[in-house]
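dude i think i finally got it to work??
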Amino acid sequence: MSNIQTSCENCVFRDGLKCTLNLVKSYEAQGRLTPLEDRDYHILNGVCLSMRYQKWLDEQEDEPYIAIFKDRDVCVNHILIFDGDFKKLGVTLKSILQQTLVPNKPHRVILAFKKGVGVIKECVKFLEDKLGHTNFFISELLNDPSDENQIVDAVFNRCSNGYYYVIKSGYKIPANMYEGLYNVIFRDGLQCIAILPENGVEGTCMSAVIHRFLKGSSFVDLRSKIEALCEDQKVGHMLHSWDKIYENLSSKTV
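look at this
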């Protein structure tokens, strides 16, 4: 989907034809490395999010592997569908705060509910108390969406770049959800446009860029658009499942 390339030549994590972050092996398995032509470094077809220059390293106070861990981050917007029950909402907010891998910045929470379900002032106080930060938005939907896809579309403009994760109040997010996403993008260096649950919308983790490009679920639901895109552009490897991610995560370390 892209002609962008990344050269390993001046990366501080290059060791000849090896990568001290073990990314070369993954990129090679994905078939994303250009053939070598009398050079002692690789060229990746795509973007390596872990490539860093010496100038970056000179500015770090930590040793390289700690510094890159602190520097890498995945922005996740939690689109939380609220049904008016604050007890259930508290359960879900607690699970957001109990992720095994803590992001560099607080995850954004976007609380969405149908008109008449909640009171914005009460929701603001509840989120401030439970989250301990103010990186959240509250959206009372003016229309009456028929399904969760329409709710996601209605509040998508509140998402920052990165990914969004759809949940309903009362649902406990797996404690290693964020770590699983981090693992896919950084440790394995895989391309990821979405991670989908077996069915439904809840548990969907979607690239904000892809959502915007496909115009969400307008006319056709987003899942169907994603699957059609993967088939048409031969990019099915960019679509992942949570079952496989959690299975692979068990053997990884930070």
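Residues 5-71 form one domain.
im so relieved honestly
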